Each structure stands twice: as C-alpha cells, then as structure tokens.
Amino acid sequence: MGPEDPLQRAREDRIAELEEKIVRRGVGGVSLPVSILAIVIASGLLVARRYEISYFFASEVPLMLGAEGEYEFDRLKSNAYAQVHGIPTIRGLYATENGRRYVMVGLRDTPIIVRRHPLPGEEPLPGRIAPQPNQTPFGVRGRLLRQSDVPQYSESIGKLLRMDGLRAREGAVWMLLEGERPGADLKTLFSTLALFAFVAINAWFVWRNLRHRLRSAKMREAS
Asked: Where are the beta strands (DSSP E) in the chain?
C-alpha cells in the first residue's frame, strides 16, 4: 500500500487520536497538572516536617550541658539530643497533650525549661490547686529546642519567664522534652518514607505524561 492509502491514513489518524486522549487523561488516569500538584503538596509536607526528620537521624550521643555551677550554655543547639542536671524552679505549669499529663518546670538560673512526666505527688486533684513541682534536683535527657522552634509553647514560656528562677539567654529560652530520643519515633520514619514514595510515583507519572506529549507532537509533525 502507498503512503496515501486511505486505510493507512485512517489507521494513523486513529493512533494519533488515541495518543491525544492519553495525553489529555494522563498516564494511569492521572493528568499532568494533578501529578505536579501532588508533588508540590507532598514536598511542602516534607519541608514542614524537616525538623522531625532531621531529629530522627540526629546523633544519639547527648550534648552535655552540665550541672549546677558548671553549665555550658555555649553548647546549646536546637533540635539536638541533650542532657542537663539542675534544680527545679519553685513553680511550674501542668498541661495535657494527646491525653498525657506533663509538668513544665524551669531549671534555676538557666534558660532551660523541662517538659517532663509528673512525679509521685505531682498529680493535681480535681477541684484543687495544682501542687508545687517536686524540688529535688534532677538530671534529664531529651530533645532540646530553641524557643522560636516551639511556638506552640509560647504562652507557657511567657508565664514561666514571669516566675522566679528562669533566666533567658540572649533573649531566648530553650525547651527540653524529656525522653524524646533520636530514631525513636517510627511514625516519623514511616510517614517520611510514604511521602517520598508518593513524590516518586507522581514524578514517574509526570515523566510518562511528558513523554507521551512529546511523542504525540512528533506524530502530528510527521503527518
């Protein structure tokens, strides 16, 4: 059959029509704009979780911040695993997060606030004023965060700063979250892997869609 054969021409037109439908609908039923939007959203979520991701892979060797009279505040570093020993401030705050009770108490003459689990005798009773935090000096390890990195605690930090004992350093205080170790929050790992997989899948859809668009354009030029 010659190049002008009607059947051959109809076949090529049909192929071009199908290619055009694939381009419009997208490979796998996912259009190019949808894939791009999905990548943008997933990437935004990864950026928003960058501190959690970074801390998951942080060093498990704690920063030693010292003890009473021998503090090393020049070693303060946000989003790091740290250890400190100190005397609690006379007053503290009680809070409930995700169904768990916590005590937030400062370490005297330091810029550090510790969020820890209540000790025996610190559980507030219904209808009564919350008890004074246990005044026994203690050592604690956990995730250290600069004040600006924990905006959810800004109100509590403000209240604690107005109490005696806490001392801001260079205009800021630090929050140490007791017991939070690098690599312990597997939810962070699984959610991060899921987001990376989601980005990779949609990047593949984008590549396939672009390849089909290019092929379709070449076919139209050839015809």
From this structure: 63-64, 80-86, 88-97, 100-107, 112-116, 138-146, 174-178
Q: Which residues contact 107 (CB under 8 A, 6 or more apart)?
A: 84, 86, 87, 88, 89, 113, 114, 166
**Do the beta carbons of residue 157 and residue 114 sit within 8 Å?**
no
Which residues are CB-neighbours of 14 under 8 A, at least 6 positions away?
A: none
Strand partners, 106: 113
Q: What is the DSSP letter of 149?
A: G
Handedness of CA 186, 192, 198, 201 (dihedral sign): negative
Name the residue among 29, 56, 5, 2 with its Cα closest to residue 193: 56
> One-letter amino acid identity for 170?
E
Q: Does 16 or 99 have the greater pLDDT score?
A: 99
Residue with tokens 């209240």: 159
Structure tokens at 74: 């020049």
pTM comes to 0.73
- What is Dmax (Cα atoms) for the chain? 97
Confidence band for 16, pLDDT divided at 50, 70 and 90: low
Amino acid at 2: G
CA distance 221 to 223: 5
pLDDT band at 222 (very low <50, low <70, confident <90, very high): low
Query: Is residue 61 a contact partner of residue 182, using CB atoms and an 8 Å limit?
Result: no
| C-alpha distances out from residue 47 to 31, 39, 73, 144, 164, Å | 25, 12, 29, 20, 38
